[in-house]
Amino acid sequence: MTLETISACPICHTNIFQPFITAKDYTVSQQDFQIVTCTRCGFTFTNPRPSADTIHQFYQSENYISHTGGSGGLMDRLYRLARNFTLRWKEKIVADYSTGKKLLDYGCGTGNFLGYMKRKKWEVTGVEPAAEAREKASAYATVYPGLDSATETYTAITLWHVLEHIHDLNQKLIDLKNKLAPSGTIFIAVPNYKSADAKHYAGHWAAYDVPRHLWHFDRHAMETALTQAGLKLEKIIPMKLDAYYVALLSESYKKPKATSRYVNAFWQAFKSNHAAARTGEFSSLIYIAKPI
User: Fold this and answer.
1) Taking the CB of residue 292, how many other CB atoms lie within 10 A of it?
2) Does the predicted TM-score (pTM) go above 0.90?
3) pLDDT at res. 124
4) Which is nearest to 50 in space by CA: 38, 58, 60, 42?
5) 291 cis-preceded (ω within 30 degrees of 0)
6) Alpha carbon of 106 to those of 39, 125, 138, 148: distances in Å?
């Protein structure tokens, strides 16, 4: 497959990058992909990468649970257990920082969050490019294939582990900001490659998820990207449970047959969260922002 190469950093537009790490696609292709860092601003991203027209091939797996619902294996069951636990938690965060109850969930997958919010009396709309996932999510709400079709404005827009998948990063953030009501709030959850679990697992860290994850954020890069899009960062909230799921996946990549991988994963996740209590560098972070 022919890959496309990013010639300029989307954050600072510098064209000089240095190798950061090589990671493997354990989910679909088993190929290695290079992650690079901008030498000027430090933004880190997969380069080269599949184009927007070819990336769909790397989602064709029953293991990609947000699009398929999962295959019923142990990791999928654990994912669903964690997801069900966090739905109420996410709803509380969105409610606490929103001025209304009109929600757009961008990259809604199979629609579990939409369904939960609808039961909580929110007016909900989804956007999901993947046809199979979109069909399932449509059982809960109107779900569009693209943002252009969502012609209204919203008091809350959520992206739960979605922004790292989007090719046109800068323009998409601007487009999302333009869909916000003047007092609206956007909630963006992404992995944090500066977490202790990311450093421990290195190329085996599951949240690199190459090549589906195109961008690898830290707090500085995210705040800069938000500012450039006309958004002001209001709050950062940790997703502490993510460290456990990511560590489990990382252990299965690193030592797939090791009987100790569950204990190891729990210990590494615990240590990561303990370290992050001091540094703020949790495995995943939710960025809450409003229009400037």
Assistant:
1) 10
2) yes
3) 98
4) 58
5) no
6) 31, 9, 13, 12
